[in-house]
Task: inverse folding
């Protein structure tokens, strides 16, 4: 009888140990499964995280022999079909030196007047605007070309986590307009006609076609292939400096240039959902003395689809 009781006690202990082991094993497997589910959900959240948002906007700049033109549409979107605003210009078109660029019909512009049009992520454009205005307000002596270099350096300094802002910068260099176009990390070049933002792929060839022709008031135009190219022997300035290989201004009267810019916006907004509502055109004309100029702001309606 003692042996039977000892055997029963031994079997009970074995049963309890196996039960505890199975319970522990079940809990371990459940914890591992929960951990795997947590990491799976966390990785899916990380894969969907995107700090940038394309808020629409198409900006353009034209350099002329005695003027410079900036244009932007006024539509602000969420990156899709939702329209946040139909009259947004705060970070789209701004004076790089912090001076007002409101809708006053005529405003005096200093000889160092520099303007920036930016499109992309509205928050990044606004942050870039504040940084550049702060930098240039303390360096009022910088020319347009110096301001262009400073903007490129600001963008490049954020290359590890770049501003999602695509800019065109311009102003008066003497009597002639100067325009520079940028990518998101600060690479830039001087051009006669530049654009950036939503719909750029459609806008740029339209502008190139308009402004590569000789402008005539009768509506006719003579198209020449590479008509703006500068010969190699004429590109060198001084001993080490080279000017751009193409002409960096257009040969149009300001009224004709404004008309072609508006026509190009009307064509693009028919095919791009992120462009529309209104086009705001800022025209800066140089004075007869070549010191400063006058700014005029014009608005034209676009399709409100």
Result:
């Amino acid at each position: 009888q003692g042996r039977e009781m000892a055997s029963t006690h031994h079997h009970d202990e074995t049963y309890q140990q196996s039960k505890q082991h199975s319970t522990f094993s079940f809990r371990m497997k459940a914890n591992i499964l929960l951990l795997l589910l947590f990491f799976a959900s966390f990785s899916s959240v990380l894969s969907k995280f995107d700090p940038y948002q394309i808020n629409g906007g198409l900006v353009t700049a034209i350099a002329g022999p005695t003027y410079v033109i900036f244009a932007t549409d006024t539509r602000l979107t969420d990156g899709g079909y939702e329209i946040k605003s139909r009259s947004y210009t705060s970070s789209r078109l701004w004076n790089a030196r912090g001076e007002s660029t409101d809708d006053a019909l005529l405003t005096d512009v200093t000889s160092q007047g520099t303007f920036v049009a930016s499109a992309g992520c509205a928050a990044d454009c606004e942050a870039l605007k504040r940084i550049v205005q702060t930098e240039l307000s303390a360096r009022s002596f910088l020319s347009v070309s110096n301001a262009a270099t400073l903007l490129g350096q600001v963008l490049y300094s954020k290359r590890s986590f770049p501003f999602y802002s695509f800019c065109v910068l311009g102003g008066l260099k003497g009597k002639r307009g100067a325009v520079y176009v940028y990518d998101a990390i600060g690479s830039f070049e001087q051009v006669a006609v530049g654009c950036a933002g939503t719909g750029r792929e459609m806008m740029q060839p339209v502008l190139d076609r308009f402004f590569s022709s000789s402008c005539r008031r009768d509506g006719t135009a003579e198209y020449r292939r590479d008509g703006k190219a500068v010969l190699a022997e004429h590109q060198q300035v001084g001993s080490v400096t080279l000017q751009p290989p193409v002409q960096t201004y257009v040969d149009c009267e300001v009224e004709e240039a404004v008309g072609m810019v508006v026509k190009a916006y009307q064509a693009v907004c028919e095919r791009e959902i992120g462009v529309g509502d209104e086009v705001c055109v800022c025209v800066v004309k140089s004075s007869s003395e070549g010191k400063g100029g006058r700014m005029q702001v014009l608005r034209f309606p676009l399709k409100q689809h």
Summary: The mean pLDDT is 79. The first strand starts at residue 58 and ends at 63. DSSP finds five helices and 17 strands in the chain. The first helix runs from residue 2 to 48.
